[in-house]
Amino acid sequence: MSGLPPGAIGINGGAPSNYVGFWVLIMPYMEQPMLYERYSAGVSGSGTGVQYFFSSNTWQDIVDNAPELRKELASFGGYRCPSRRGGGEQASTLMKDVSGFEDNNYDTDAWRSAMGPSSDFAFVISTSGSDWYWIHSQDPNDANDHLHNHRGPFRLAFLPPPWGMYNPHEWQVRDTMAWWSDGTSNQLIVGEKHIYEGSLGKCAAAWSAPAWEFSGDCTYLTAGAWHTGAGRPIVQGDDIETADIFPIRRKSEVAADYARTYFGSWHPGICQFLLGDGAVRAIPVTISLNTYASLGHVNDGRTVAVP
């Protein structure tokens, strides 16, 4: 990799599992090259080859057809916080409730992509308005429309044409660390994701889920827009001064809306973040929201100190 990893690779318009996530893409640099290759190559099940980068039933196919791969992915502890989880196999499941998800489209392929190996971390997304939704798409039309509003550390990858016929392994980096023009020591790049204490291991994929059930504990395998656990917005809005900023949450706090977009820790009063220079810092949950937003913005030109 000759630059920064993207948040995801894929093309908008398919099932959300079409967008393989940041955490899979960096596996070779987490001393997991064999696990990365096994996952990206896919397995054969029911006489059909499954390419997991672009499989609608990613986790269910692995469970059904590749038990050893399931065990390896669900047992990998590199993306877990020991304050939340123990060892062994751990994977999130879809949450069902009395709202009728089972009778609606809750079990369709598009929602199933939220299932899979659990993690406790998410990468930072900082965007203008709703453009955080487009962190997953490399379609040139999407990039032209939305890329200029992405201010976070990991933007879209570049995939060469022709569209609909490419190999996901051909993705190319878009940015080098020069993209972080504000410097590395005051740049948040990864943090602990908010998971309400009653929702550990559960992922609700529908907007209509009650607030306490709108859990953020979705799989790290995919980064399809809003319903996976891969990336979290820090700031929304055209200007940091007037932006709608998602605050850091405590484990006992129910996020009223968009629970899967919050960072949050089970450590009392703080949330752990990785900075661009490799340092890990405990950020107070009471941090000024404008400071918090600036720390997620790679080129706003502001001088702010990590509390």
In short:
This protein is α+β, with helices and mostly antiparallel strands. The chain has helices at residues 22-25, 33-41, 58-65, 67-75, 109-112, 140-146, 289-296; strands at 8-9, 20-21, 43-45, 48-50, 91-94, 116-117, 121-126, 188-192, 202-203, 231-236, 244-245, 249-250, 264-265, 270-275, 280-284. The chain has one domain.
Structural class: alpha+beta
Query: How would a textbook summarize the main sheet?
Result: 6 strands, mixed
Low-confidence stretches: 13-17, 97-107
Radius of gyration: 18 Å
Q: Percent of residues in helical segments?
A: 10-25%
Number of helices: 7
Comma- or semicolon-separated keywords:
single chain; 307 residues; alpha+beta; six-stranded mixed sheet; three-stranded mixed sheet; 7 helices; 16% helix; 17% strand
Structure description:
- The protein has 307 residues and is an alpha+beta fold.
- The chain has one domain (8-80, 90-296).
- It contains 7 helices and 15 strands.
- The chain has helices spanning 22-25, 33-41, 58-65, 67-75, 109-112, 140-146, 289-296; strands spanning 8-9, 20-21, 43-45, 48-50, 91-94, 116-117, 121-126, 188-192, 202-203, 231-236, 244-245, 249-250, 264-265, 270-275, 280-284.
- The strands form 5 sheets. A 6-stranded mixed beta sheet has the order 11-10-7-8-14-15, covered by helices on one side.
- β14 and β15 (280-284) form a beta hairpin.
- The radius of gyration is 18 Å and the shape is globular.
- The two termini are 32 Å apart.
- The model is unreliable at 13-17 and 97-107 (pLDDT under 50).
